[in-house]
Design goal:
Blueprint (H helix, E strand, L loop, with lengths): L3 E5 L8 H4 L2 E5 L8 H7 L5 E4 L7 H6 L5 E4 L9 H6 L4 E2 L6 H16 L2 H9 L20 E5 L3 H12 L3 E5 L6 H7 L1 E3 L2 H7 L2 E4 L13 H6 L5 E4 L8 H9 L5 E4 L19 E3 L8 H19 L15
Parallel strand pairs: 1-2, 1-3, 3-4, 4-5, 6-7, 6-9, 7-8, 9-10, 10-11, 11-12
Helix pairs in contact: 5-7
Bound molecules: NADP nicotinamide-adenine-dinucleotide phosphate.
């Protein structure tokens, strides 16, 4: 067995023994991602790269990585990687689908409930010593039970959110590239809708598509104009699916009632972003998959993909299986 060289772009929440049996492993030790120029130098010498969504794996980087046999990303999304270039060079790219579905759906649900019931505002209210008595109209929000939930992108996470919504007696509508089969629709208690009618009728809209050329700024001025003034938007997918300027205007002018987002464009959100001034917006720092067991599973899956790629075996989870044709 040849001894390979791999780079891991951050410390992982798991043991590396299995990988160290087949490769000489360099782990970038900093809290911040390696700067692009550093990555560009390091990638010239490695057989495998285990990267995160904060690493820009573009055409130039893939082309200078002459010895690269595999790129393994510790995330389900891979919009930071130039897949066509990797495919053209015959390099399989791995990701970690499935193991983070429930954790991300849970955070989506936490954000939906926190935005509806104004949990973050209420906490700030108490800590600002403003709580004086029980008031009939203090911090009121909408009901969740009986409300209509619109799910945009009905894959693994979208469906896991639907399962949670069912337990809350919501009416659930979804839009996606493909309509799912009637048995699945029936078991989840969901109805298919076109994008415009979903926006017009939903009390809560939650985004679960990947970021792609098609979904970039899918939510802009026109879409917020279609939504109910009482609606709340949740985004735990990718920041750039929502135009941040349009979101700011919609929240500031009351075109929609509130939003809760785990992802921003760019990340991290600039400290002078006007979005940070809004009380009707909750922002978390991209923690959708951040449960301890989930992150460990993601790291192990990424290592499995990496080892398979080094050995010339098919990756257990490959986003560009065309490389095997
Ligand atoms: P998935 O199973 O691939 O589901 C994505 C769904 O979106 C698919 O049903 C897909 O349809 C649909 N879709 C794609 N393009 C669309 C479009 N233009 N309009 C409408 N629907 C479209 O992926 P997943 O595992 O649910 O993950 C979804 C995304 O969540 C990931 O790509 C990632 O960016 C994000 N994510 C974020 C976090 C976080 O930490 N906040 C954690 C995990 C995932 P098809 O089946 O036709 O392709």
């Amino acid at each position: 067995m040849p001894y390979f060289k791999v780079l891991i772009t951050r410390r992982l929440p798991t043991q590396l023994h299995r990988l160290e049996e087949v490769a000489n492993v360099e782990v970038w030790p900093e809290r911040q991602a390696p700067p692009y120029e550093v990555l560009l130098e390091k990638v010239k010498e490695v057989d495998g790269l285990l990267c995160l969504l904060t690493d820009q794996i573009d055409q130039q980087l893939i082309e200078v990585g002459k010895t690269l046999k595999v790129i393994s990303q510790m995330a389900v999304g891979f919009d930071n990687i130039d897949i066509p270039t990797a495919t053209a060079r015959g390099i399989p790219v791995g990701n970690t689908p499935g193991v983070l579905t429930d954790a991300t759906a849970d955070l989506t649900w936490a954000l939906l409930m926190a935005a509806a019931r104004r949990v973050v505002e209420a906490d700030r209210f108490v800590r600002s010593h403003l709580w004086q008595t029980w008031e009939p109209d203090l911090l009121l929000g909408p009901d969740i039970a009986g409300a209509t939930l619109g799910i945009v992108g009905f894959g693994r996470i979208g469906q896991a959110v639907a399962r949670r919504a069912k337990g809350f007696n919501m009416r659930i509508i979804y839009t996606s590239r493909h309509r799912c089969n009637p048995e699945l629709e029936q078991s989840l208690g969901v109805e298919f809708a076109d994008f415009a009618s979903l926006l017009q009728t939903s009390d809560f809209v939650t985004i679960h598509t990947p970021l792609s050329a098609e979904t970039f700024h899918l939510f802009g001025e026109a879409e917020f104009a279609l939504m109910k003034q009482s609606a709340i938007l949740i985004n735990t997918a990718r920041g750039a699916i929502v135009d941040p300027d349009a979101l700011y205007q919609a929240l500031r002018t009351g075109e929609i009632a509130g939003a809760a987002i785990d992802v921003t464009e760019p990340e991290p959100i600039p400290t002078d972003s006007p979005l940070l001034s809004l009380d009707n917006l909750i922002i978390t720092p991209h923690i959708g998959s951040a449960s301890r067991p989930t992150r460990e599973k993601m790291a192990n899956m990424a290592i499995d993909n990496l080892i398979a790629g080094l050995r010339g075996e098919r990756l257990p989870n490959c986003v560009n299986p065309e490389v095997y044709q």
